[in-house]
Amino acid sequence: MSRLAEAFDGWIRSTFVALNTELEELYFAQPDRAGVIGVGDALKARLRDEGHAHVVALLAEGNTGEGFDSAFNLLGNVGLYMGALRRHELTNPDREEKSPFGEASSLALHVGASVGMAPRFATAHLATHNLAVDGIRKSFTSLADEFLFIDENTRGILCIQRAADALSRIVPLGVSSPLAESLLRDATAALEDLAAVNEKLFTRLDVDRFFYCVRPYYKPYRVGRQVWRGANAGDFSGINEVDLLLGLCRANDPYYAQLLMEKMLFMLPGDQARLRDCMMRRSLLDELLAALPTDRDSGWFQTNGAVFLDLCAVFARSAAQHHDQLVARFIDRPAAALPPDRLTGITASGPPIAVLMRSLEVLRDYRCAAPRPDLPTRHADFAALRSALGRG
Ligand code: HEM
């Protein structure tokens, strides 16, 4: 890291966090917790101006050629800064045609294009690639609920990555291999851990603190002229590797393929490559269905098929938890209590909450292989497999 990049990183880890936290306490103490404009103006100006001085110096320094890790870290820092400017209403894409922060936009665009990612902070910056210094992870604020959210999201991502890793190791072995059974069990254990993470968030995260003081940092904002959507815990390839390798979602489904395309730049380059690779594989469900007419009574089919069904049931449970518990409790219900003029930017991806809920419901139903006449879920295929395994 260059000396200037190090100084910016130090500021992001200290003064930036202190100013955001102070602002959050001011907003949260008001009768209208969603009120931001006209509150804490001196703190906001300090945040804007101190960050700007770092950005201008870094922009003048240019691309220092210090490699991916350093560029990725800088992209995260300028992104956290711009995300906070958006949260404090110092910029708002609905009011502007281009970002009022020209230098920060230029820096983000330069670094984003050079690492092959969106020019904003991504989930990886706060999750799997959030370097702790003396145990302290990067964050917007020092609120306990933000750390709970960041840590448990990361733990959830790591669980899904373990599952994806186990499933991808079945590909070269084949679903009839005796080793596939152990790998399917490894994936099941990882997803059971995910269910525990979801449960912990559901019971321990404070709804109001999350909704009013954490979530607003994930709003979309402009970089240059273009609006870039906010990060969410799904911006890594593992979840889609699991979807595709199990066979619950298909890369030739236009809805799902569009989702994959849309999230590519929000993922690390390594994840982008893993996802592309997965899109060219035949799923485990399709392998089992292809073997069903000839091998249904064989030992491997009965064993691996049964473990596969158990794994899919655990995955379905975690998908239902995400939608029916986490999104409902922490986003949908609190949003319903707000007046319409307070709802802009409430979803990280930008659409109104009702549209987002419908699209998250589609994903849940694919993952649960739910019977949906309007969607090509794998409900009928699972019924055929269950019946061949005597679980009809
Ligand atoms: C308080 C906890 C959580 C809440 C309120 C929440 C809410 C949301 C919302 C609202 C979205 C849609 C983003 C948007 O476009 O606005 C989303 C996406 C997503 N979240 Fe979460 N989430 C939570 C925790 C988690 C955890 C622990 C995981 C596990 C890694 C996770 C995985 C995902 C995935 C994979 C997506 C992308 C859509 C999909 O493929 O299902 N989330 N989340």
Briefly characterize the structure.
The chain has 392 residues and is an all-alpha fold.
Describe the 3D structure.
With 392 residues, the protein is mainly alpha-helical. The protein is built from 16 helices and 2 strands. It has helices spanning 3-13, 15-28, 41-61, 68-87, 102-115, 123-126, 144-168, 178-204, 207-214, 238-246, 254-263, 269-278, 284-295, 299-336, 353-367, 379-388; strands at 221-223, 226-228. The protein has a two-stranded antiparallel ribbon. A hairpin with a 2-residue loop joins strand 1 and strand 2. Helix 13 (284-295) packs antiparallel against helix 14 (299-336). It starts with a helix and ends with a helix. The model has no long low-confidence stretch (mean pLDDT 95). Protoporphyrin IX containing FE (HEM) binds at residues 152-153, 156-157, 160, 197-198, 201, 205, 232-234, 239, 322, 326-327, 330-331, 347-349, 356, 360, 363.
